[in-house]
Amino acid sequence: MSTRFHIRITRNGTTTRTTVSMDKTLSGLLAASLGENGLMADHGTVRAWLDKTLSEWAAFDPLLPVTRQVTHLALLHIARPEYVDALTALDAPSGVMRGVGR
User: Fold this and answer.
1) What are 23's strand-pairing partners?
2) 46 burial type by CB count under 10 A (0-12 exposed, 13-18 middle, 19+ buried)
């Protein structure tokens, strides 16, 4: 199962609307990580995070599928910081997306 998000990506003053699908387990984990006081964030909060994160992500590549980039950023957000640090410390082969830590 998957969850669909209708997002807006703003790059260089131009806003593009698109729809991405995210595995339901991954979207649930992302919602839990964005929530407060032990509560999961709602769909709108997750969508807003996706809008903002994709719009501000310097490594965004319009030639790659947006769903792939959303999955990449969601995994980086929910992963343990030490795992993200270990991953970004390695020299990734060309063609592999790089992200930023939390």
Assistant:
1) 2
2) buried
pTM score of the predicted model: 0.79
Residue type, 64: L
Distance CA 77, CA 79 (A): 6
Tell me if 17 sits within 8 A of 6, measured CB to CB.
yes
* Cβ-count burial 47-75 (b if 16+ within 10 Å, e if not): bbbbbebbeebeebeeeeebeebbbbbbb
* Each residue's pLDDT tens digit, 9-42: 999 899 999 999 999 999 999 999 999 988 999 9
Amino acid occupying residue 78:
I
Question: Tokens 């390695």 correspond to what residue?
Answer: 90
Distance CA 79, CA 33 (A): 10
